[in-house]
Design a protein that fits this description.
387 residues; alpha/beta; nine-stranded mixed beta sheet
Length: 387
């Protein structure tokens, strides 16, 4: 895939190092006339007016975010805007630039937070980008083996993560979401419109022989190219009811497992769907979802009573009341090897001491660790046959 980088500054150096191998850089465009005719390494620095001579497949902006809108407007004037390929910014450069801007009083922290948290009809684009980057960074931290097939369990009602990841890393992505309408009637044609809008936002590359299949009878979505399926989406499908003849290299879930009632079936199914030596990454939020400021209050309710309460409350609440060590034991019981654990939230000690006096009998013996851990990432491996 031939690309032109736009921007020859420090950010460009970072992009040259981290672009996937499937991208071949033809040249670097820059508006600084003093740089034209020079080279960065072996790459020529050219005027933006010369981009069309190189006939690139895409143009990637290797610049700071605050210059993106101006360059995009310039690409429109040059008739090249359809070649613009959104690509993640360089986080280190952005932090340095933001600090410089804040020192100058040009931008405030509050404004930056508003931008990062901005919403659109398809959800937060920034959230999907950060989640995609987090998944890939986490995966590479724990495994060097190549991965081509990915399964996202509980993708929500948009495919931002899958589309973004497909765009950046290729491969085949499958998403399962049992509650795309969040409990209500969700017209499938509107769902497809949302997916199409996300594909437009992320500018997913197409080839002439790509094929998009929308199967409204089974309410599923597939994006194919001449190599086969690249993106599969199955709404209204629980993991326990999902079947695939081919195995997955990686399974992800984020704030999903706490909602599952039959956690043993869930874990067993994940194990079944992974290849030998495959990895599972599960972020689990252990707080009482009725009120996150009172994260352990649901332990004052006995298990049988909670099951009845949960049955009327819907999937927004915990399907289980499992704690940190419960999950550890279940993963090990079903054959997983726990590669790593990252506790990312803890409960307040004073609150724990206060609420523990009212715990139901079956929770009075919980360890301090089980009560303190509020959120955890488990990295699991399905042992290979030769290990």
């Amino acid at each position: 895939m031939d690309v032109i980088l736009f921007g020859a500054g420090e950010v460009c150096d970072s992009f040259i190092k981290r672009l996937p191998k499937r991208f071949s850089i033809l040249a670097i465009a820059d508006n600084n006339e003093n740089l034209h005719g020079q080279f960065k390494g072996e790459l020529p620095i050219i005027s933006p007016d010369e981009i069309h001579l190189y006939k690139p497949n895409f143009i990637i902006l290797s610049c700071l975010q605050r210059h993106v809108s101006d360059i995009c407007a310039q690409l429109v004037k040059l008739g090249l805007d359809d070649l613009y390929l959104p690509f993640p910014y360089d986080e280190e450069s952005e932090i340095k630039d933001r600090e410089k801007q804040e020192v100058k009083g040009l931008i405030g922290r509050e404004l930056v937070d508003k931008i990062i948290g901005s919403k659109n009809t398809s959800g937060s684009v920034f959230y999907h980008i950060s989640l995609g980057n987090h998944f890939e960074k986490c995966r590479k931290q724990y495994t060097s083996r190549p991965a081509n097939r990915f399964l996202h369990i509980g993708s929500g009602h948009s495919l931002g993560l899958e589309i973004y990841s497909l765009l950046r890393w290729g491969g085949e992505w499958t998403a399962i979401e049992p509650f795309p309408g969040l409990g209500g009637g969700y017209p499938f044609n509107q769902h497809l419109s949302m997916i199409k809008e996300l594909m437009r936002l992320f500018n997913v590359p197409y080839h002439v022989n790509d094929e998009i299949l929308f199967n409204t009878a089974t309410e599923s979505f597939r994006l194919h190219d001449h190599h086969g399926a690249r993106l599969n989406y199955f709404p209204d499908k629980k993991l326990e009811d999902f079947h695939d003849d081919k195995k997955y290299d990686v399974c992800y879930s984020c704030a999903v497992m706490e909602h599952v009632v039959d956690i043993h079936s869930f874990v067993a199914k994940t194990y079944e769907l992974l290849v030998s030596g495959g990895f599972a990454f599960h972020w689990i939020d252990l707080r009482d979802h009725r009120d996150f400021s009172r994260p352990l209050d649901f332990l004052t309710i006995g298990k049988s009573e909670w099951c009845e309460y949960y049955g009327d409350a819907g999937h927004f609440l915990h399907g289980n009341q499992l704690r940190y060590n419960d999950y550890r034991q279940i993963f090990l019981q079903h054959g997983f090897r726990i590669v790593a654990e990252d506790v990312y939230m803890k409960n307040d000690k004073e609150y724990i001491q206060e609420v523990s006096f009212d715990f139901a009998d079956e929770y009075r013996s919980l360890t301090w660790e089980d009560l303190e851990v509020a959120g955890v990432l488990f990295v699991l491996e399905k042992p290979s046959h030769d290990s």
